[in-house]
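Morning F.,

Quick status update on the modeling queue. The single chain you submitted on Monday has been processed. Sequence for confirmation:
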Amino acid sequence: MPKITQLSQLDLTQTYSYADYLTWQLDEAIELIKGKIMLMSPAPNVKHQDISANLTTLLHNFFKHKKCRVYAAPFDVRLYDRKKSILASQDIHTVVQPDLSVICNPEVLDEQGCNGAPDWIIEILSKGNSKREMQIKYELYRESGVQEYWIVYPNDQAIHQFVLDDNGHYQLKHMYTDDDIATPHLFPELAVDLTEVFETWQK
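Structure tokens below.
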């Protein structure tokens, strides 16, 4: 079997597994969504990177000496229906790279990343993010049981907070903006100062 080093060697209409994904050596950043290849947005800009670094630092300091851990992209998160137990690579058809993942169950971590749903995912939007991509991620995170999902809007300096309810649906719990203090549903003792989150050199 030839080594896959270029996207042109793959059939974008075909369904692939995480086992296939692990064998590829591509320059392009991709995600696998229910077996279909999805190109990721171009490299994040300075504002995106600043926000990611600010959030990573804040969360890393908060979770230090606690059982939860925060991981920043690139970090493979394999997702599937939350009703299923941990799956083998050949049975997994979705792998994404959220900007930030908070994981409190060490059993879902392995050498490749996270095999199952993180407790909390934060996605920072870029110019390249399409509405379709946002809808797909929203549904994926809901289906797989991500308990809390934040969408960060850099240009609007806003955060939308979604929390999974008892029926497995996301509820928009809060919309934070400007100098608000955001409070994670899962970690109510954590205060996220949006002024610090959106502090960046790029205006």
